[in-house]
Specification:
Helices cover about 10% and strands about 25% of the residues. With about 280 residues, the protein is mainly beta. The protein has one domain (about 15-260): L,D-transpeptidase catalytic domain-like (Beta Barrel). The strands form 3 sheets. A 10-stranded mixed β-sheet has the order 12-10-9-8-13-4-5-6-3-14, covered by helices on one side. It has a two-stranded antiparallel ribbon with strand order 1-2. The N and C termini lie far apart (about 60 Å).
Amino acid sequence: MTVSVDRRAVLAALAACLSGCAAPRGAAVAWRGAAGDPAFLAYGPKEDDGHMIPGLDPATVSPDLLRRQVPFAGPYRPGTIVVDVADRRLYLVLPRGAAIRYTVGVGREEALNFRGSAVIGRKAEWPRWAPTASMIEKMPRYAAYAGGMAGGIGNPLGARALYLYRGNQDTYFRLHGTNEPETIGTAVSSGCIRLFNHDIIDLYNRVPVGAPVVVLQEPADLQGPETIAEQPGPAMGAPDVVYGPSPYAGPYPDTGPYFDVGGPMPPGPWAGPGGWQ
């Protein structure tokens, strides 16, 4: 018996087996409108640099997973990114006791998760992905992608990546988008912090290279008393608005302290507006 093989289907299936910091599947979701929650207005279909990002489906995505401006009680200065792994939340600290809250996916095992402090050492739009040597060792099929995979809607890193550095060294942990929006709010990754593509674009546009990042493993009571009303995503500005080098305190790193579990970050080298070299 002769079996006909569609080469394009085989290649698509291989691409669907990628994981990186994310589990390896594409997820095209038809958008069904705001479904009564204005926060969904920021999550419709979006064309970005030639790539079409599907809208989130309000029928399958809880409004609680969407980004909002919320009260914030943590001891972190404005401009700091704080990740609460236990609660699956990421906060961008704002002035006057507020923060933008995003929901994230985290490492499927505690040992896989980054912890402590870092800075955003590099930023990339539609980043290229390549498995690490340890990933290839654990999953030999990734050897086919040792040379990397071009950015795109099927790439596990999604629409943007923020690279975590300590000193001038890449930690190989990232904050990034995803091709699996249904995994946001779960423990499923290989250790990186993943966000909806809409949310990583929003965060990418709000933080500069050098912004401090704190990753907390233990549960943290970061969202304070309801002293301000929660605001949905659209009230914070469109997700593609660029806010400049830093809308808050900066430049980074400054004299600190960072108020985090790992102590103050080493000073650099700091390369000014161009970022880390």
